[in-house]
Specification:
elongated, disordered C terminus, 4-stranded mixed β-sheet, 6-stranded mixed β-sheet, about 325 residues, 10 helices, single chain, binds zinc ion, alpha/beta
Length: about 325
């Protein structure tokens, strides 16, 4: 059973929320778009791998996006498959073209037909995850649970080559479609070797309870202040910013699209980036003429008013995560 499902990562949600609100001349915009693109490709690779791992959900316990803390240090894993005899970490990689694992130098080279580029060596990455997870399990009285790993190549057209020891790479790296079979096979081998049966669901629940969510302060990362953000409600139909409020509805200046709920996305995007919103900020963001209209909108959006801080927060997220 899958007990933790993949959602769009918070940093990616933040990129989507902030990029349209920056001036096209904002100096760090190209860098932000590149970072957002990279993260987006990573996320879509993870979804492709999820599709294949889904076949294991009927017999094993699966958790997506596992984010744990060990010894004050956070570590993140794309997927945990908790099988009968061990935990399998599956790390997704979304590369295009040809990738070459150099087992002697411990490096990964990608050749997309034009440029050769070096990447973080996935084996080192998963070995670190394995190390941290084993320590975490020990601290949580689960030291008897063995941890294994696989690197899943999301794109079936990616050509995998090896420079050095082919066997080691073949044991741990494969296209996503082959990973479920490799996990089943390894689990069977462990059974034959007499490894005890694990309570996979119970272990999964213990991990789930400890899971946090990876996040970054995107404003701070790129030196963005609130003054850099452009106000206005985005038209859900054509994407133009600056819908006009007319008799309780929002009307697009360009395509005349009419909506009663268009402001909700802008409001929640703002909360995602800033943690809270004041009445004054709401007037500015949505282009409202009066405090009373802003108050009514904030009330009707299911937000909670914090008297002490004189601002509104989203109930689903903690107060003032600034
Ligand atoms: Zn429009």
């Amino acid at each position: 059973m899958k007990i933790k499902h993949r959602t769009k990562p918070l940093p990616l949600q933040k990129y989507d929320a902030i990029i349209p609100r920056l001036s096209p001349n904002f100096p760090k915009l190209p860098e932000m778009k590149e970072d957002a693109g990279k993260q987006g490709r990573g996320h879509s690779g993870e979804l492709k791998v999820d599709y294949h791992l889904e076949t294991l959900a009927s017999q094993y316990t699966i958790l997506d996006n596992v984010y744990l803390k060990n010894n004050g240090k956070n570590f993140q894993m794309d997927t945990h498959v908790i099988a009968n005899h061990g935990i399998f970490i599956v790390e997704s990689k979304n590369y295009f073209g040809t990738i070459i694992f150099d087992t002697i130098l411990g490096q990964l080279i990608r050749d997309d037909g034009q440029v050769e580029a070096g990447f973080e060596y996935p084996i080192t990455q998963v070995e670190n995850q394995q190390f941290h997870l084993q320590n975490w399990l020990k601290r949580n009285h689960l030291s008897h649970v063995p941890v294994y790993y696989f690197v899943a190549i999301a794109e079936p057209a990616t050509i995998i080559k090896v420079d050095g020891n082919r066997e080691t790479i073949a044991e741990n790296v494969a296209h996503a479609a082959r990973i479920p079979k490799m996990i089943l096979e390894k689990d069977r081998q462990l059974a034959q070797l007499g490894y005890p049966n694990l309570q996979d669901y119970k272990i999964g629940k213990t991990i789930l309870r400890a899971c946090g969510e990876f996040d970054i302060d995107i404003m701070q990362k790129y030196g963005i202040t609130r003054r850099d953000l452009l106000p206005g409600v985005f038209c859900p139909n054509c994407g133009v910013r600056g819908m006009k409020r007319l008799h309780g509805a929002w009307v697009c200046r360009k395509c005349r699209f009419k909506s009663y709920r268009a402001h909700l996305k802008d409001l929640f995007d703002y909360l995602l980036l800033n943690g809270s919103i004041s009445n004054k900020e709401c007037m500015w963001l949505l282009g409202l003429p009066s405090r009373s209209t802003a108050t009514r909108i904030l009330q009707n959006s299911g937000l909670v008013y914090l008297q002490k801080y004189k601002c509104w927060v989203n109930k689903r997220r903690g107060p003032l995560e600034r």
